[in-house]
Amino acid sequence: MITAAVLAALALGCALGAWRFTSARWTYRAPRVAILLWQALGVAWGLASVGALLAYAVQPYDQGVLQGLVAFAGGGSPSGSWDLPHLLALIAGLSLLAVLIAVTVSAGVQTLRARRRHRMLLALIAREDPEIPGVRVLDHPSAAAYCVPGWNSEVVVSAGTMELLSQDELAAVLAHEAAHVRERHDLVLLPFGALRAALPWSKVVAEAQSQVELLIEMAADDWARRHVSPRRLATALLRFGTAGAMPAPHGMLGAQSHVMARVDRLIKPGPGLSRGMRYGILTFCVILTTSAPFLWVIPL
C-alpha cells in the first residue's frame, strides 16, 4: 500500500510540475536541458500512474509491483483478501499501460508511413542543385524548408526559398535543418505527440507538446549559430514569416515555426544557465526518471 501511495504522489507531482513548467521561461536559456526535463517528467508520470494502479491491485500478494504481477499471472495465492477494487485497479492499470504503448506505436507507424510517402514523392518531383549539394530542391514558388528525418534523412528547400534568401541566410537555414537531423529531434517529439493523441482534452499535454516543439527549434538554432551568423538566421526566419512560408508536411521538421520567439532570442541572447544549475537539473532528471522503475522493482 505504501508503494501505491508513493507512486500516486509521484504521478501527481509530475502532473503539477508539468503544469508549472509550461509557463517557465528559463527554458529558453538552456533548451536541451529543458527538453531532458520534459522527457523525465513524461516518463516518470507514465510509469508512476500505471505503477500506482498496479501496486494497489497486487497489494494482496505483498511482493511489490513486478513480483506481484508475476505471482498473479502464475496463479499464486495472495496473502491478503482479493476483492473487486483490486481487480478494477488491475484492469485500469493494464488498460492505461496498453493505451500509452498503443498510441506511441501508432504515432510512430503513422509518421514512418508519412515519411515514406513523402520520400517517394520527392523522388518524383525534387531535384539536385550543384550550388547546394546534398539538398533536395522543390520547384515551387512558395518558401519552404524542412527535413525528412530517419535513417536516410533529407533536407528539402523550395525554389521560392532560394529566391527569397541570400546565400548566407540560406546557409543558416540549412544548418538549422542539419541540426534537426543530427540530433534526431523527431524522436524527441514522438512521445509528446502520442500523449497528445491519448489525452486530447488535456491543456497541459497540449501546452507541453507546444513547448517541446519550440525548444527543439531553439536547440537547432543554437547548433546552427555555432557555424553561421545568428543574425543571418534571424533575418531568414523573418523573411519566412513575412513571405507566408508553407508549414512542414506531417512527420517532418521545418525551420519556419515559432518565428518571433526564436528571432528575439537570436537577436538578444540572454545569459545561459550556470554549470551548477545545469548539473543540478540533469541530476534531478536522472533521479526522476529512475524513481518510478525503482518503485516497480523494490517494494516499500
pLDDT below 50 for ≥5 consecutive residues: which ranges?
none
Q: What's the order of the H and E elements?
A: HHHHEEEEHHHHHEHH
> Span between N and C termini?
8 Å
Task: Strand order, main sheet: write it out.
Answer: 1-2-4-3-5
**Total number of helical segments?**
11
Q: How many β strands by DSSP?
A: 5
| Major β-sheet annotation | 5 strands, mixed
Q: What's the rounded overall pLDDT mean?
A: 86
Shape: elongated
When the domains are counted, the total is 2
Strand content: 5-15%
- How much helical structure, as a percent, in the residues? 55-70%
What is the rounded Rg? Answer: 23 Å
Structural class by SSE content: alpha+beta
Could you walk me through the main structural features you see in this protein, from its secondary elements to its overall organization?
The protein has helices at residues 2-21, 31-57, 65-73, 84-125, 159-164, 167-183, 185-198, 203-224, 230-243, 259-267, 275-297; strands at residues 126-128, 135-138, 145-148, 154-158, 253-254. It is α+β, with helices and mostly antiparallel strands and 300 residues long. It folds into two domains: 1-82 and 271-300, no CATH class; 112-269, no CATH class. Helix 1 runs antiparallel to helix 2 (31-57), helix 2 (31-57) packs antiparallel against helix 8 (203-224) and helix 2 (31-57) packs parallel to helix 11 (275-297). The relative contact order is 0.15.
Secondary structure layout plus pairing:
Layout: H1 2-21, H2 31-57, H3 65-73, H4 84-125, E1 126-128, E2 135-138, E3 145-148, E4 154-158, H5 159-164, H6 167-183, H7 185-198, H8 203-224, H9 230-243, E5 253-254, H10 259-267, H11 275-297
Parallel strand pairs: 2-4
Antiparallel strand pairs: 1-2, 3-4, 3-5
Helix pairs in contact: 1-2, 2-4, 2-8, 2-11, 4-7, 6-8, 6-9, 7-8, 9-10
